[in-house]
Every structure is written in structure tokens, then in C-alpha cells.
Amino acid sequence: MTGRIFDIKEFSVHDGPGARVTVFMKGCRMRCVWCHNPEGQSTEKEIMHKLSQCDGCGLCTRDNRTPYPRDPGACPRGLITLCGEDVTEEDLAERLLRYAPRLERMGGGVTFSGGDPIVQAEFVARVSSRLRDSGVHTAAETSLCGSADEAALLAENTDLMIVDLKLADSALHEKYTGMPNGMISDNIRLLKERGTCIMFRTPLIPGITDGAENLRALAEIAGGHPWEKLAYNLLAGAKYAMLGRKFDEKGEIGAR
Questions:
Q1: What is the band of 202 on the pLDDT scale with cuts at 50, 70, 90?
Q2: Both 98 and 181 in a single domain?
Q3: Which of 8, 15, 156, 192 is deepest in the core (most CB within 10 A)?
Q4: Residue 238, SS3?
Q5: How far apart are CA 14 and CA 150, in angstroms?
Q6: What is the number of domains present in the chain?
């Protein structure tokens, strides 16, 4: 089976217990206005242009190329790259298993993030199962914005589900993420009923998720499970220009 990833980060200490290797999966069903990985939203491969390092040589727009660079091989400095790599479950598992001895020594493992691994639940489950068979701890960081079958498949084949909690109010959730949270709430209940190992996470977005009322409601959802609150990433909008897009918030979040 083939899946699509857009990055692999070595030895992160923020994506689960111990030192982790984090695999970033392509595709997410939500469009959070504060998203700092916009290249993970679409399941399609995309061109990224590092505009901040561009010296304006013009080579990328010659030979009938579009005004905005869309040819990965056009830049002599390698500033235009294709975001999205197709990998088989065997190849990805083999790549990740190379880290296994070091991850074991550091009490870590592999975390599937994104994007959102629930969009490619079957592929992630297959790779994770291969890793677990070799003694590697695995985790999936997900919004749970998917079907009950997809949520169950991830839970069955990983050791830890890192679940993003954003807004308890469904109308506000839809306003700021593009999706209501009914499906997410149902899947959280499902995982709790299954006895899944869960850790919750909430990004503290000024004026959106960090209000006292919202945090109280999210605390009730988290219950006795571990719950991390993450500071807002001030560089959240940095990658949008690389994709030829504008950051939705236009700096408004930081001003609230």
C-alpha cells in the first residue's frame, strides 16, 4: 500500500514520550486559521518556493514558465521544491526501523502527525503495525476528524493517540477550523470506551481557544487523561507565501 508524506523529523521531544521520529502525513480535513503546516492540508503534491531566500535571478520564470514559479527544477539554488512524497508501507517502515535502536535507548518511538494521519488511516495503521511488531512505540497525533472506523483503526494499531482539542463549542469550532466537532466528540467517546491510551493537546490561540470558558469545557472532555496546553506559534503564517497563498489571519491573532 502507498501513502503520501511531506516530511520526517528526527528526534523530536514534543510529539509523545521520549525522543521521537515524527512522520508528517499529507492531508487534513480541517482548515484551522492558525495552521502552521499548510503544506500538510492538501493530499496533493505541491510546489514550495522559499521566497525569503530568492535573489530574483528570474531563471524560474523563463521558457514559458508561469509568473509564479511552479517548476521544481527551475531554481539553480534549489529554493523550489516538491512537497509530497509517495512511499510504500514496506519502504517507510524500513526507513523508520533504522532509528529503532536509538529510539529504544531514549525511551521514544515514532509519531505520525501531519496534516492529520486519520486521512490516511489504513496506511498509517499498516506502517505502525509493522513498527510495533519490531518493538517500536508508536503514536498518532490527530484531530479525530474522521469516521469511527478510521479512528478505531488508528487506535488499534498505535500505542498512543495524541488528540487535538481546540474548541468545545461546535459553531465556533466550525468557524475557526472549517468543520463542526460532532464527529470528533463521538470519536473521543469511542476511544475512551475502548480504553485507548490518550493524551490531549490544545493550542492556546489568543482570543480563540485560550478563553476560560473554553478551557473549562475542554478540561471536562479531557477528564483524567493527560492534557497539554501549547503556546501559540508566532511563526504560524511563515509557510503560506511559499505555497503562493496568504495567511488567513493576516497577523490578527497576535494582535488580539
A1: very high
A2: yes
A3: 15
A4: coil
A5: 24
A6: 2
